[in-house]
Design a protein that fits this description.
The chain is α+β, with helices and mostly antiparallel strands and 240 residues long. The protein contains six helices and ten strands.
Length: 240
């Protein structure tokens, strides 16, 4: 009958190379006691052999396999060295991964488009400024013409902005609702608004919203009329 090699690594059926090597190690670790450590090369030489910083000679090999204490110490040094090497390799791998992640974050931040702050709603951005128009000096005294009044007074000035205007009406003006128009040179209304007039410190004052942001600079006519009255008064103002 022809003998065929087994497909496994068994030296003999049921005994693998690993089992045979392990049995040899167990035998060398217990079969040759040497409590007095006679002829032992010492810890330094065993470390040199285990760390492979020097080639072992025949005497070293013969002593290791025939001295159980040296054999055990040699394998302990070898095992500790492998564990230390594994820790160092693990640390280096972790450091390399951390460096890769950090580099990726830095590169992504450099390549990422700048973050633009979210635009606030238009209503939140709108800033309302306050202004005052005093119409009392523009009252006509008996015998004065409108041109006489304009010649001795400078025109009220309004900024091209969103304004909350406090209008001080001519002396004797009653309280109540008032309607205002800002007319251009052709008489077309550019702004229309209204407000409720109250008497404060003996002055009839009304607050009204004038949004002049889209109004061109120049002279305009401000018409003032009580909502319950038919007639209106007109005053020249300047928008800058």
């Amino acid at each position: 009958m022809r003998w065929r090699k087994s497909a496994s690594n068994d030296i003999v059926p049921g005994v693998s190379v690993e089992k045979l090597v392990q049995a040899g190690r167990d035998y060398a670790a217990s079969a040759f006691p040497n409590p007095d450590r006679i002829g032992c090369p010492g810890r330094e030489r065993l470390e040199t052999l285990a760390l492979r910083t020097a080639m072992p000679d025949r005497d070293d090999i013969n002593h290791l396999v025939t001295c159980s204490p040296c054999f055990i110490e040699y394998h302990a040094i070898l095992k500790a060295s492998k564990q230390k090497r594994a820790v160092i390799i693990g640390t280096l791998v972790a450091a390399a991964l951390a460096l890769i992640v950090f580099s990726g974050v830095v590169i992504s931040r450099r390549l990422a488009p700048p973050i633009t702050p979210a635009k606030q709603p238009v209503e939140a951005q709108k800033q309302v400024l306050k202004a005052v128009i005093d119409l009392r000096p523009f009252e006509r005294v008996r015998g004065d013409s409108p041109s006489d009044v304009r010649s001795r007074l400078s025109l009220p000035v309004l900024d091209r902005a969103d304004l909350l205007v406090s209008i001080q009406l001519p002396t004797g003006s009653p309280e109540g609702q008032y309607f205002f128009q800002l007319l251009d040179s052709s008489g077309s209304p550019r702004v229309e608004t209204s407000g409720n007039a109250v008497i404060k410190d003996f002055v009839t004052t009304v607050e009204a919203q004038f949004d002049l942001r889209d109004i061109p600079a120049g002279r305009f006519a401000l018409t003032v009329r009580r909502t319950v009255a038919l007639g209106s008064a007109s005053y020249a103002v300047e928008v800058r």
